[in-house]
Amino acid sequence: MPSSHRKIMINRAPVLTLWAAVVAERLGLDRDEALTLGKALSGLTAYAKGIRLGIYEPTPETVSDKRKALQQGEEIHIDLMGRSIPAVHTKDGLRAVRQGKPITPASVERYLGSKFGDDLEDVRQAMTALANSLPAADLARQAFRLYEAFRPEVKAGTAGWGEEGELDLAKLALADRS
Fold first, then answer.
1. Alpha helices (runs of H) in 12-119, residue ranges in sequence order
2. What is the Cα gyration radius of the chain?
3. How confident is the model over 139-151, as pLDDT tens digits?
4. Domain limits of the chain?
5. Residues near 149 by Cβ (< 8 Å), separated by ≥ 6?
6. How many Å apart are CA 159 and CA 114, to the nearest integer?
7. Half-sphere exposure of 91 (CA within 13 A, CB side)
8. Cβ atoms 32, 105 nearer than 8 A
9. Cα 16–17–18 angle (5° rounding)?
């Protein structure tokens, strides 16, 4: 079966992580920088959804931790796919921050490899083709809508939380035409 017609069972989080990284790279960041932003964006999105579903509840401790992270200086925020992602300049380049520490690109690659397995490069290539099919400015505006068009379908609400759905690579090829 051609790779563009393959369907992969996978959770939404790694799909969003990889897509956000591909988008960030298309918008001018290097791959390592983009990987960390993709992971941070996916985490922020999952956390926000968890709060909406009542799975997570912000506590005074988490608010305090966020405040402490802001006091560390040298932090900037990168806007990507409708989210503001905290990041810092390190000796190796820009890195998104999670819990006050820079995310390592290698940890994101391991995460993606463990979730996508042998399909990682095929999915990355399909996402890259989609990202390259649009001018950068259009991609920046439409990236989350495109993700919504191809992301795996799961049950609504808490029933779908953490569940796998079907990622159809053909939807990636069609997403920019929808």
1. 12-26, 31-53, 60-70, 105-116
2. 16
3. 998 998 999 899 8
4. 3-177
5. 171, 174, 175, 178
6. 24
7. 0
8. yes
9. 90
